[in-house]
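Long-time lurker. I teach an intro course on protein structure, and each term I like to show students one example going from raw sequence to a predicted 3D structure in token notation. This year I'd like something fresh instead of my usual example. Would anyone be willing to generate the tokens for the chain below so I can use it in lecture? Attribution to the forum is fine with me.
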Amino acid sequence: MTKKEQVSQVTHEFGPYFNEDSRILILGSIPSVKSREFGFYYMHPQNRFWKVLSSIYEEDIPDSIDSKKDFLKRHHLALWDVICSCEIKGSSDSTIKKVVVNDINYLLRNSKIDIIFTTGKKAQMLYEKYCYPDTAVHAVYLPSTSSANIGNYTFEELKMAYNKMKEIR
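-- Reply from a regular --
Happy to contribute to a lecture. Here you go:
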């Protein structure tokens, strides 16, 4: 078995990005191997997350963690993940087991978040199963921007789906 194929116990290595003015929470499942390596969200170079957000907000793609944080702050966006820890093979959501979830209510209590979006089917399923009973806020599903999802959604389809965030302001 290669390292990528081995099941690993993974603990979320960095906290949520938000501030008291955040209004929209975007939840993934758990950071990818690349994101854990870089210490921030959606850092795999082939993940289309930052490209999609930049396109819908009509801005240049942020190219550093600081510029990504500035982008999020300007648009009142918060990022976190449903999962605090789990077993996973590489970055494959389909292999996730033994889930411990993050305390999403912590963000809701410490910000102005009034809508939650999930990125991907696994994040949506886990949020509704484990977090919704505590938050009582249904999450809006968005397709995953992962490179593993390229065959399922074109860039234009992702933009149409993610544009929901911009429309609620």
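Some talking points for your students: The two ends are 48 Å apart (CA to CA). Residues 79 and 102 are 12 Å apart (CA to CA).
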